[in-house]
């Protein structure tokens, strides 16, 4: 997928502003951004469901336009909103979507059976969507998007409002599809999912690129930071400010109940100095550990906001 200089406006709102993105064959690519950052607009432009005002989009090295049904047949799209027919049963829904692309009857039947099994809806094949729980409806939505075994799969926040069990099965399913050869674009504002699933990430904010690369590359962009997790017997008034003023590379201090999380600049920080500082205040260290910067912290530092703002 090759997105070059794409601009998309809705009236005065600039949803994408000279946007570039490239997805390689065989990877799981995470598109990450807070609400309203332009993720769905990007996907709709890639699929030529929306016409961009400027720029070019190529799929499989060919220019994507609304009439390129040959290219569309090679793509599976699982939209954010459940998009199934309420008057068709589970089996009929999946069969309908499969039939749009697969004309051979035997093959179509085989693919539908495989999709039903893949999402674990064997016991629900005759049910209408409204009888299914939210999580099962999501699985049906997924089955309809993947049933024709496309080379490129696009998921727009497929785990929003699903129970943890369905969520895990959806994520495992996506991993399996990728192992079987599909290229995946996955959007989410759940950082843990992106971190667990994706090879490379693209961080989007207000329709513009904030950062992209492998997870490690993105983390490096925020500098050489680490998080020191410190639990003390008590936390005196003003202690957080004193830590920041200690000239020990402490950039942020986050108080989580009894525990302090210090974001420190590795190039300056000294653990001995921190221990000395704590002892000088006559405090007792109950535990002390270091954790590496997560993608969530990198995002916070790059955009100044959390994904769920
Ligand atoms: P979310 O996570 O909430 O789905 P998103 O990252 O997918 O958000 P988009 O839905 O692409 O973001 O929206 C990008 C911007 O464009 C937002 O400011 C949004 O309000 C605006 N927008 C999206 N669709 C339309 C539309 N049909 N008409 C007007 N503005 C729109």
Describe the structure.
With 309 residues, the protein is α/β, with parallel strands linked by helices. It is built from eleven helices and 14 strands. It has helices spanning 39-46, 69-72, 90-99, 105-119, 134-146, 164-179, 191-197, 215-221, 239-244, 271-280, 295-303, and strands at 2-10, 13-22, 28-32, 54-59, 62-63, 75-78, 152-156, 183-188, 200-205, 208-214, 225-232, 250-256, 259-265, 285-292. Strands 6-7-8-3-9-10 form a six-stranded mixed sheet, sandwiched between helices. Strands 2-1-4-5 form a four-stranded antiparallel sheet, with helices on one face. The chain has a four-stranded antiparallel sheet with strand order 12-13-11-14. Helix 3 packs parallel to helix 5 and helix 8 packs across helix 11 (295-303). Bound molecules: adenosine-5'-triphosphate.
Mean pLDDT: 89
Structural class: alpha/beta
Strand order of the largest sheet: 6-7-8-3-9-10
Helix content: 25-40%
Bound molecules: adenosine-5'-triphosphate
* Number of DSSP strand runs: 14
Major sheet: 6 strands, mixed
Distance between the termini: 29 Å
Inertia-based shape: elongated
Query: Compute the gyration radius: what is it?
Result: 24 Å
Portion of residues in beta strands equals 25-35%
- Poorly predicted sequence stretches spanning 5 or more consecutive residues: none
């Amino acid at each position: 997928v090759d997105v070059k200089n794409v601009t998309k406006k809705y009236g005065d709102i600039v949803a994408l502003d000279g946007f570039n993105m490239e997805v390689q064959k065989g990877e799981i690519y995470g598109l990450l951004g807070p609400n309203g950052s332009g993720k769905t607009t990007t996907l709709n432009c890639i699929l030529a469901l929306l016409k961009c005002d400027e720029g070019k989009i190529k799929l499989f090295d060919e220019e994507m336009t609304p009439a390129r049904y040959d290219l569309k047949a090679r793509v599976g799209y699982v939209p954010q909103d459940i998009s199934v027919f309420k008057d068709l049963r589970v089996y009929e829904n999946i069969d309908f979507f499969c039939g749009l692309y697969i004309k051979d009857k035997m093959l179509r039947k085989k693919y539908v059976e495989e999709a039903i099994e893949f999402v674990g809806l064997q016991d629900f094949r005759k049910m209408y969507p409204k009888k299914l729980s939210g999580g099962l409806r999501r699985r049906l939505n997924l089955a309809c998007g993947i049933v024709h075994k496309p080379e490129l799969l696009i998921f727009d926040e497929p785990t929003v409002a699903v129970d943890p069990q369905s969520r895990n099965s959806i994520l495992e399913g996506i991993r399996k599809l990728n192992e079987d050869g599909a290229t995946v674009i996955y959007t989410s504002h759940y950082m843990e999912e992106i971190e667990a699933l994706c090879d490379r990430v693209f961080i989007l904010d207000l329709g513009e690129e904030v950062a992209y690369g492998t997870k490690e590359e993105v983390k490096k962009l925020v500098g050489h930071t680490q998080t020191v997790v410190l639990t003390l017997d008590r936390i005196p008034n003003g202690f957080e400010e004193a830590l920041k003023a200690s000239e020990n590379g402490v950039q942020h201090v986050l108080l989580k109940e009894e525990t302090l999380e210090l974001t420190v600049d590795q190039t300056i920080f000294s653990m001995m100095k921190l221990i000395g500082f704590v002892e000088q205040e006559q405090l007792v260290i109950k535990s002390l550990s270091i954790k590496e910067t997560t993608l969530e912290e990198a995002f916070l530092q790059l955009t100044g906001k959390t994904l769920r703002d």
